Amino acid sequence: MSQxxxxxxxxxxxxxxxxxxxxxxxxxxxxxxxxxxxxKNFTKLVFIVGTLGLMAQLFLPNxxxxxMYDSQSEILDLDLDGSIRKKYTDATNPNEIxxxxxxxxxxxxxxxxxxxxxxxxxxxxxxxPQRLKKTAGSLDVLITRFSKPDTTIKIRFLP
Length: 159
Description:
By secondary structure, this protein is an alpha+beta fold. Helices cover 23% and strands 25% of the residues. It comes from Aquirufa aurantiipilula.
């Protein structure tokens, strides 16, 4: 019997190149110097990047967190002149419900009030589009409403 037909062998294909990295991954490129990815420098680089990532997880949330005004003396000393942007409750612990107001001041800063030690009547009487005006040293808050006349409400703290 005669031998079976074998098609001629195709020439090898060109290596694919990544658009941003070029011939960095491998292959036999004639141009450029060879990068040794398994050397000492790469290990140091991975260690430094990993350490920076862990440090960022530890310290950045504390640096980016907003100041929470939650004690009676902090709320008494606070000077407010702005509008309510957020109003929500945090009831993760049913024994201690936090009533949180986020007030944007006229100068652009945000104040976060936690009224968990205050009487919740004040929290119930304010709404998101309303404007608050409170002077330092006083617990009387002037609320500017759009459909009703302006009202002064006093923040009362529970014993």
